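Reviewer 2 asked us to include a model.

Predict the structure of this chain.
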Amino acid sequence: MTLSIKWTKPATKDKTKILIYWVKRNGSEKYSEKINTETNKAIKSILQNPYIGTKVKDTKDVRRLIVMKDYSLFYRIKDKHIEIISFWDNRRSPEDINIE
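Predicted model (C-alpha coordinates):
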Protein backbone atom coordinates (compact mmCIF):
# COMPACT_ATOMS: atom_id res chain seq x y z
CA MET A 1 0.00 0.00 0.00
CA THR A 2 1.33 3.41 -0.98
CA LEU A 3 0.88 6.12 1.63
CA SER A 4 0.55 9.80 0.86
CA ILE A 5 1.42 12.87 2.92
CA LYS A 6 -1.17 15.33 4.14
CA TRP A 7 -0.12 18.48 5.96
CA THR A 8 -2.51 20.01 8.47
CA LYS A 9 -3.14 23.75 8.18
CA PRO A 10 -1.24 24.51 11.43
CA ALA A 11 1.79 22.47 10.25
CA THR A 12 1.79 24.22 6.87
CA LYS A 13 1.53 27.60 8.59
CA ASP A 14 4.39 26.76 10.99
CA LYS A 15 6.68 25.67 8.17
CA THR A 16 5.86 28.71 6.04
CA LYS A 17 6.54 31.08 8.94
CA ILE A 18 9.90 29.44 9.62
CA LEU A 19 10.98 29.57 5.97
CA ILE A 20 9.93 33.22 5.63
CA TYR A 21 11.75 34.11 8.87
CA TRP A 22 15.04 32.72 7.52
CA VAL A 23 14.66 34.47 4.17
CA LYS A 24 14.15 37.80 5.95
CA ARG A 25 16.88 37.20 8.51
CA ASN A 26 19.51 36.07 6.01
CA GLY A 27 18.44 38.16 3.02
CA SER A 28 18.63 34.97 0.97
CA GLU A 29 16.49 31.92 0.25
CA LYS A 30 19.45 29.54 0.49
CA TYR A 31 18.95 28.38 4.11
CA SER A 32 15.17 28.08 3.67
CA GLU A 33 15.78 25.93 0.59
CA LYS A 34 18.07 23.71 2.66
CA ILE A 35 15.39 23.32 5.35
CA ASN A 36 12.85 22.47 2.66
CA THR A 37 15.18 19.92 1.02
CA GLU A 38 15.97 18.21 4.32
CA THR A 39 12.27 18.18 5.24
CA ASN A 40 11.47 16.47 1.94
CA LYS A 41 14.17 13.87 2.63
CA ALA A 42 12.66 13.23 6.06
CA ILE A 43 9.20 12.82 4.54
CA LYS A 44 10.58 10.28 2.04
CA SER A 45 12.04 8.37 4.97
CA ILE A 46 8.67 8.42 6.73
CA LEU A 47 6.93 7.18 3.59
CA GLN A 48 9.42 4.32 3.28
CA ASN A 49 9.19 3.45 6.97
CA PRO A 50 6.24 5.12 8.74
CA TYR A 51 7.43 3.95 12.16
CA ILE A 52 10.87 5.59 11.85
CA GLY A 53 9.87 8.47 14.12
CA THR A 54 10.02 8.20 17.88
CA LYS A 55 6.65 7.75 19.57
CA VAL A 56 5.75 10.87 21.52
CA LYS A 57 5.17 10.19 25.19
CA ASP A 58 1.65 10.75 26.52
CA THR A 59 0.05 10.67 23.06
CA LYS A 60 -1.99 7.96 21.45
CA ASP A 61 -0.31 7.74 18.05
CA VAL A 62 1.94 10.75 17.42
CA ARG A 63 5.52 10.27 16.23
CA ARG A 64 8.41 12.71 15.91
CA LEU A 65 11.23 12.80 13.38
CA ILE A 66 14.02 15.34 13.78
CA VAL A 67 15.05 17.34 10.72
CA MET A 68 18.46 19.06 10.74
CA LYS A 69 18.59 18.90 14.58
CA ASP A 70 16.71 22.22 14.86
CA TYR A 71 13.32 21.12 13.53
CA SER A 72 10.91 18.26 14.10
CA LEU A 73 8.09 16.78 12.11
CA PHE A 74 5.27 15.54 14.31
CA TYR A 75 3.03 13.12 12.47
CA ARG A 76 0.53 10.31 12.81
CA ILE A 77 -0.15 7.33 10.63
CA LYS A 78 -3.68 7.23 9.26
CA ASP A 79 -5.27 4.52 7.10
CA LYS A 80 -3.88 5.61 3.74
CA HIS A 81 -1.77 8.64 4.57
CA ILE A 82 0.69 10.22 6.94
CA GLU A 83 -0.68 13.34 8.59
CA ILE A 84 1.92 15.99 9.40
CA ILE A 85 0.60 17.64 12.55
CA SER A 86 3.39 20.11 13.27
CA PHE A 87 6.62 21.44 11.83
CA TRP A 88 8.37 22.51 15.00
CA ASP A 89 11.42 24.62 15.77
CA ASN A 90 13.16 22.62 18.52
CA ARG A 91 14.54 25.81 20.06
CA ARG A 92 11.05 26.86 21.10
CA SER A 93 9.60 25.99 24.47
CA PRO A 94 8.14 22.47 24.43
CA GLU A 95 5.21 23.72 26.51
CA ASP A 96 4.00 25.71 23.48
CA ILE A 97 3.50 22.75 21.18
CA ASN A 98 0.00 21.52 20.46
CA ILE A 99 0.09 18.10 18.83
CA GLU A 100 -3.17 16.47 19.87
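The chain is about 35% helix and 30% strand. Residues 70 and 91 are 7 Å apart (CA to CA). We have added this to the supplementary material.
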